Amino acid sequence: MNFVLLSILSFLLSSIHAQQSANEKGKLPNEFFLQFLEQKYNYQTDDFLILVSVKEQKLFLYKNKELLESYVISTSKYGIGQAAGSYKTPLGAHIIKSKIGDGAASGSVFRGRVFTGKIADVVHEAVATDDDFVTTRILWLQGLSKGFNQGDGIDSYKRYIYIHGTHEEGLLGKKASHGCVRMSNKEVIELYNKVPEGTFVYILDAENRPAPVDDINLKVFK
User: What is the CATH number of the domain that holds 81?
Assistant: First the structure.
């Protein structure tokens, strides 16, 4: 009887996983949204596109209108917002202005974008520590919308908003950062190696909609 129950449970879990994988593969951006990005920001669909979903705590990587990868992330535990000193994750259009950490070992701790010589102990449990380490790789974001995420008091680049590795991997999937987009150390290396500087990044609002500065009322995913 136990064997039968275990077999049924295994089948159900496999079915759920397969359905989740199928749903993820179908997670494509709305065609009107892509056209908007092309017209306003000169994004070309044969370039890489990164969409950050605060709602789902996931980062999606696209090229040629196809989903290449999805990664579990953490955005700010303080919510979304543009203001300097708020420790919130900014919304809207960005590019990867610079990449830092070539060849650094997984878990390498950076301070001021310089390797400290220390390797962080990765915490796999869902517990917060007293540290907010930036680890392994840094993809430094620059906002593209003047007066919204670019300029005095609201500038993503001057706020040091990164996509970066974290030692608090057990908190991925939850809002846990101090404004940046956190990834696992393994996956931030993978993303770093895939995308060049200049890659377009768009951080969506809490309902998977564009930032208010872009004033288009649609859900980004089909």
Answer: 2.40.440.10
Residue at 91 is within a domain:
yes
Query: Are 183 and 164 a contacting pair, CB within 8 Å?
Result: yes
Domain residue limits at 64: 29-211
220: nearest Cα among 103, 67, 9: 67
Bridge partners of 69? 61
SS3 124: coil
List Cβ neighbours of 27 (8 Å cut-off, separation of 6 or more).
60, 67, 70, 221, 222
For the residues 136-146, what does the mean pLDDT come to? Answer: 99
14 located within any domain:
no
User: Is 108 exposed, middle or buried, given 0-12, 13-18 or 19+ CB atoms closer than 10 A?
Assistant: buried
What is the H or E stretch that residue 31 is in? helix 31-41
Q: What span, in angstroms and rounded, lies between the C-alpha atoms of 199 and 21?
A: 25
Interval 205-222: pLDDT, tens: 999 999 999 999 899 997
Name the pLDDT band for 8 (thresholds 50, 70, 90).
Answer: low
**Reduced DSSP (H G I as helix, E B as strand, rest coil) percent helix, strand, coil of the chain, to 5:** 25, 30, 45
- Please report where in the chains the tokens 């994004």 appear, as a residue: 43
pLDDT tens-place string over residues 75-105: 999 999 999 999 999 999 999 999 999 999 9
